[in-house]
Write a structure and sequence with these properties.
4-stranded mixed beta sheet, OB fold (Dihydrolipoamide Acetyltransferase, E2P), alpha+beta, 2 domains, 6-stranded mixed beta sheet
């Protein structure tokens, strides 16, 4: 029997991609029922393992931001195994749904990718795992359970704040960590300093953290904007994952590129001071009484 394809090759690629990403196709993307039409799904092989925080969620895709500030979009489908550590969900292991993948949740993601770069190399999650305590915290933030304290309620509302709302807060302290030119790595000294700052902020009632990344004047505006955001994300991830700072006590971060320099960009010493991330300890004026 001669096999006849009634759809262009490009259409088949998009059809296969849709199956891989979401496990189902729209009416327009569904393959025809004609038994003479053969559609071969791309062969999947093991992809990279990602360890980071879910920084965004849109439909059947999650964005995972790792400790180096890099972000990767991964598709989640019906075949993705979502697991929590034993304990809180011990009776439901392997049965958790994609709705448990909340923004701010630290996760480990095992991925699959098409062999030989087929279908654009999109990554698909074969397994997503996380710790029970992290999931419980994320649920408290989203749902406002009876376990939420008044402090958590105020902090969650504060997530809507941006740098433009800085006048609503009193700055209780600022810690600066510095970087080499074009780099985002934290030194051992910086890591110790960040955890010390988190401990100090933890001792202050209703304290929040605002993290702002900066660069010196080297490089293009677009490069510096991206670099400043990566530096801010690197610091945020370390504060949350290693220093125990809770996501609901973090104001919306930002990258300021070369704006608002701390020193003169015309000297090497000044540039070194400008390659920084500022970690500000803030308390809302409404609760600070000042």
């Amino acid at each position: 029997m001669r096999v006849i394809s009634k759809r262009p090759a490009v259409s088949l690629v998009f059809a296969m991609l849709a199956v891989t990403a979401s496990g189902s196709l729209s009416a327009q993307e569904q393959a025809p029922a004609d038994p003479n039409v053969v559609v071969n799904a791309p062969q999947m092989i093991a992809g990279p393992e990602l360890k980071g925080v879910i920084s965004a969620r849109h439909g059947d895709r999650i964005k995972v931001t790792t400790t180096d500030g890099a972000s990767t979009v991964v598709a989640v489908n019906d075949s993705t195994r979502i697991r929590a550590a034993s304990g809180l969900f011990s009776s439901n292991r392997g049965k958790l749904g994609a709705d448990s993948l909340l923004a701010g949740l630290p996760v480990t993601v095992k991925t699959l990718q098409p062999a030989d770069g087929q279908a654009g190399g999109d990554l698909v999650a074969s397994q997503v795992s996380f710790r029970n305590n992290d999931f419980k915290t994320a649920m408290m933030i989203r749902n406002g359970t009876d376990q939420r304290f008044e402090e958590q309620t105020a902090a969650t509302e504060a997530l809507r704040g941006r740098v433009g709302d800085i006048d609503k807060y009193n700055i209780k302290g600022t810690t600066n960590v510095h970087f080499d030119t074009g780099r985002t790595e934290l030194s051992a000294e910086d890591k110790t300093q960040l955890c010390s700052t988190a401990t100090s902020a933890q001792a202050q009632e209703n304290a929040l953290l605002l993290v702002v990344g900066y660069t010196d004047s080297t490089g293009s505006d677009d490069f510096n904007q991206e670099l400043s955001e990566k530096r801010a994300n690197r610091v945020i991830n370390y504060l949350q994952q290693q220093c125990g700072w809770k996501p609901y006590r973090m104001l919306t971060p930002t990258g300021m590129a070369k704006a608002d320099p701390a020193a003169d960009n015309n000297t090497p010493e000044g540039k070194a001071q400008n390659r920084r991330v500022a970690v500000n300890i803030l308390v809302s004026k409404s609760v600070d009484g000042i």
